[in-house]
Request: fold
Amino acid sequence: MLRTAILAGLAVLLATSALAQQADPPLFTGEKAFGNWKNDRPGVRRLIKPEDLQKPYVTDTASNGSDVADRPEGAKPILPPGFSAELIASGISSPRVVRVAPNGDLFVADSRANQIRVYRLAEGGAKPEEAVFAKGLTRPYGIAFYPPGDKPQWVYVANSDSVVRFAYRDGDLKASGKAQTIVDDIPANHHWTRDIVFSPDGKALYLSVGSGSNVAEDMSAKPKGGVDEWAKSKPLGAAWGSEEGRADVLAFDPDGKNRRIVATGLRNCAGMTLQPATGALWCVVNERDELGDNIPFEYATTIKDGAFYGWPWYYIGSNEDPRHKGARPDLAGKVTVPDVLLQAHSAPLNIAFYEGGNFPAGYKGDAFVALHGSWNRGVRTGYKVVRLKFKDGKPTGEYEDFATGFVISDADVWGRPVGLAVAKDGALILTEDGNGTIWRITHGGGQS
Reply:
């Protein structure tokens, strides 16, 4: 059965690759943007707007997780014409976030192995030098260098339950000392992916903490003093009980002190980055499940200080979740609408802006987002890397398929994209944790 699936999948991959060479791929809008993996190919564009939301329960709730098959021989990400993908590492337990050190080394969170790996790329396609920088971590995910700039002295790592740091000198392949705990007492269950990033001036450490449930099912008990009293003393949309301090982006001083809530209502901000052109903090969010195949939309957005993004009471503006009907009328009209809407259940995990010199000039200022792939959808979607379009530093709302070909059949996938980073030479680095591989994507020339 697996061999049949792989052969069928390879036929789809080859057909999709041929389609990728066609000019003027379509722009899907409205319900036509609610496609699936069979519609995906490089260049296909989608534009989803808040008014495209379906009502809850238009479709039944699906449980359709992917089976990960071995990567078919010769299979690579399918890319737009002129781009190529080079496999630089494989056989990794769980490569997730990848960040580039000032000297060009790739720091990769090997989350299930509880370690941080380092890869030093070699010239001419030679095998990179690799090492384990630190072991004994707890589901590490986010990585950040401090202070920002060319001479960091620390490598910060976000565990599922803490933020730690290691002393660092330029070129270190192995931590020279033990981890220092900077932030502790972070709840670790359910959504465990903790990303971190420093503000441009290095004065704030941002930390994303996802929710402890799908839609705060255990938050029916009112907070002490009642909801009105809670709302008076807490940030807009702050959750309570087991969800207190979750579904948030937090900020700390670099030493872990002066904790504060930056934004609330972000069910699972799994990836963060700074927009180079503006210094704005961006986040990609996994929205809630079990409302139907196409609802609600995932999203990428700037994080505004003091903003509330809806979870668990509302989504994509003042659309009330029927499971919390009438619970927070005070929040209606106070929900910040995200900047770029992505197809529901695509599971965006990371975002990286492109400012390198290898890709065609038209890519500068745009962002790439890794979509890990759906489970709560009748026909799977995601399992690809998309490009968010920007104009004059602002998102247009449109996004297009960039790297596809990770799905073999309706039952099997070989790749689940996770981490993205731009290397010093302008290549795009991509990790996927289905088969545990790392790819280097380059362009061979030309302009767009």
Q: What stands out?
A: The chain has one domain: 2-443. The CA atoms of residues 102 and 150 lie 5 Å apart. The longest helix spans residues 2-20. Residues 2-443 form a domain with the Neuraminidase fold (CATH 2.120.10.30).
